[in-house]
Design goal:
four-stranded antiparallel β-sheet, 17 strands
């Protein structure tokens, strides 16, 4: 008899954003005239920029000519894109990252879920609380989480690092138990929190001291405004011996519908006597056929001079939304954070409402969709996430509706 992977039975409910979609679809069916404004799922709304579109068209034209046609992409990524990333991003920031340490993929979400495959199930992981659900769920699927403890919202074998108002929604170094794998995301999803370079250096030093590995999600680095906030963990000393970095083109260049990302694993990152760079290359080449040539050419255009200007315009557009949400909710008396170096605004639910009660309240009374904080972990209860990825006019209307409640 065929047996299933019973670790999946340890997952709690459906994926957060699937649950939200079902609730919104039900409401829409029952209220067909309602004008719903979605500030929940972090999907972009602005069109791809002219330089990227031009690059896509050029690449498509190449595919109609036998002499320039491309079939399977190199499994680790085309050299032209890997070099563009290394030269125009990491090296400009003083990071010692080479092109062959960059692995091109179709997005950071897949990589953040797949990266755990190169580690033993015996490893102890640590996550921020609240946290992006994929970090936890992918480790549950692998059998690394232990059992779910009813009433706590936690798994027994995961170290939860509280991110609360008292610590600025930034985790503290674990002291009671040393994790083998540490997930960090800055600017943070969902809270929008950041940490300075000196604070991040403490995590790098901690990981090197204990031979841990940091999986650093920098998907939102393009939104950083403060000079003392690092865009990459490799800006810190000796980070290449302890850190893996995940990046995405989704939120900076608007590739949510095009799909492109990459993971950086330095060749000098060694654990248990093995090169993690070599292990990931083996996994990548075995299970992945490579991002399409057309998409990788579009990614290369992001690093052109015109591309950089256009991408900055996109980011500025969404940060204008973030500022309006942040200031508007403060004027309305809400306790809010984030929105300064990140496209997410993290707000305290009013009147001690649970995060799902507040979700229903906003949906039913203002027809505005957000994300309940409890979906990100136990310390997310009592909080709510709004995104700045909507159209500006719709964002203004959504905030005004909330202010008028």
């Amino acid at each position: 008899m065929t047996k299933i992977n019973k670790n999946y039975l340890n997952l709690q409910g459906s994926y957060l954003f699937s649950t939200i979609a079902k609730k919104v679809n039900t409401f829409s069916a029952e209220n067909p005239d309602a004008k719903i404004i979605r500030l929940g799922i972090g999907d972009v709304t602005q069109a791809l920029t002219p330089t990227i579109i031009s690059s896509l068209h050029q690449a498509v034209d190449e595919m109609k000519d036998k002499s320039t046609f491309k079939g399977y992409a190199p499994d680790l990524g085309y050299d032209f894109l890997r070099k563009a990333i290394a030269d125009n991003d990491y090296k400009l920031r003083g990071c010692k990252i080479e092109a062959d340490e960059i692995f091109v993929s179709d997005g950071a979400k897949c990589d953040s879920g797949n990266i755990q495959e190169i580690f033993s199930v015996d490893n102890k992981i640590a996550v921020c609380d609240p946290v992006y659900p994929v970090y936890v769920d992918s480790n549950v699927m692998a059998g690394r989480s232990g059992t779910f403890v009813e009433g706590t919202g936690k798994y027994s074998n995961i170290i939860y690092m509280p991110c609360t108002k008292e610590n600025g929604f930034a985790p503290q170094l674990p002291t009671d138990e040393v994790p083998d794998i540490i997930y960090l995301c800055f600017p943070n999803n969902p809270t929008g929190a950041t940490i300075t370079k000196s604070e991040l250096q403490k995590w790098v030093d901690y990981a090197n001291e204990h031979e841990s590995v940091i999986i650093y999600d920098a998907a939102y680095e393009a939104y950083i405004r403060d000079e003392d906030v690092p865009h990459s963990i490799y800006e810190c000393d000796n980070a290449t011996t302890c850190a893996i970095e995940l990046r995405s083109f989704s939120k900076n260049a608007g590739f949510t519908g095009v799909r492109l990302g990459f993971t950086v694993i330095p060749k000098e990152l060694v654990r248990d006597g093995q090169s993690l760079h070599t292990l990931w290359a083996r996994r990548h080449s075995t299970k992945y056929n490579g991002a399409p040539y057309i998409v990788q050419k579009a990614g290369e255009a992001v690093y052109s001079e015109e591309g950089k200007k256009e991408i900055k315009g996109l980011v500025d557009y969404y940060m204008r939304n973030a500022s309006y949400i942040l200031n508007g909710l403060r004027e309305a008396g809400y306790e809010v954070s984030g929105g300064k170096n990140a496209p997410y605004i993290w707000l305290k639910t009013p009147d001690n409402m649970t995060s799902w009660d507040f979700f229903d309240y906003l949906l039913n009374t203002a027809n505005v969709v957000g994300t309940p904080g409890s979906g990100f972990g136990p310390n997310g209860e009592g909080y709510f996430r709004l995104t700045a990825f909507g159209n500006y006019e719709a964002t203004v209307e959504a905030v005004d509706r909330i202010k008028n409640l």
